[in-house]
């Protein structure tokens, strides 16, 4: 699980840079100001979580079930949250609204929140032994 976290964290970080540049340049003419802001939110959250995924991969052994659940919450939460925002923005800009993605975004946000709660619990347990 540690290796997966480090690899996926790196991939998510690299993709956040790529998507951020793509959104700022290639999509700027296609997107309204509102869509641009939404797309940027997806990129920002993806980068934040790429960083916490890498940090988690470094500091946690992923022996405990709560650490594994935390990892999966972060990994899947980014896909459901950020990637659903990208899909909503891209489909909306082409008048092909993929409305089915709308309910997926808050589910991804919920997974990210659970990941942060579990991160806090697990980090506080590690801090007790330092």
UniProtKB/TrEMBL annotation:
<feature type="transmembrane region" description="Helical">
    <location>
        <begin position="100"/>
        <end position="121"/>
    </location>
</feature>
<feature type="transmembrane region" description="Helical">
    <location>
        <begin position="6"/>
        <end position="27"/>
    </location>
</feature>
<dbReference type="InterPro" id="IPR006696">
    <property type="entry name" value="DUF423"/>
</dbReference>
<keyword id="KW-1133">Transmembrane helix</keyword>
<keyword id="KW-0472">Membrane</keyword>
<dbReference type="GO" id="GO:0005886">
    <property type="term" value="C:plasma membrane"/>
</dbReference>
<keyword id="KW-0812">Transmembrane</keyword>
<feature type="transmembrane region" description="Helical">
    <location>
        <begin position="47"/>
        <end position="63"/>
    </location>
</feature>
<dbReference type="Pfam" id="PF04241">
    <property type="entry name" value="DUF423"/>
</dbReference>
<comment type="similarity">
    <text>Belongs to the UPF0382 family.</text>
</comment>
<feature type="transmembrane region" description="Helical">
    <location>
        <begin position="69"/>
        <end position="88"/>
    </location>
</feature>
<protein>
    <submittedName>
        <fullName>Uncharacterized membrane protein YgdD (TMEM256/DUF423 family)</fullName>
    </submittedName>
</protein>
């Amino acid at each position: 699980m540690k290796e997966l976290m480090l690899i996926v964290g790196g991939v998510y970080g690299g993709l956040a840079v790529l998507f951020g540049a793509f959104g700022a340049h290639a999509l700027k003419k296609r997107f309204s100001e509102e869509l641009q802001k939404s797309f940027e939110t997806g990129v920002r959250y993806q980068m934040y979580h790429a960083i916490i995924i890498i940090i988690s991969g470094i500091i946690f052994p992923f022996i405990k079930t709560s650490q594994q659940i935390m990892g999966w919450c972060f990994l899947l939460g980014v896909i459901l949250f950020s990637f659903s925002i990208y899909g909503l923005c891209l489909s909306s800009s082409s008048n092909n609204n993929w409305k089915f993605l709308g309910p997926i975004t808050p589910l991804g946000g919920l997974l990210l929140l659970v990941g942060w709660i579990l991160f806090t619990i697990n980090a506080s347990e590690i801090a007790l032994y330092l």
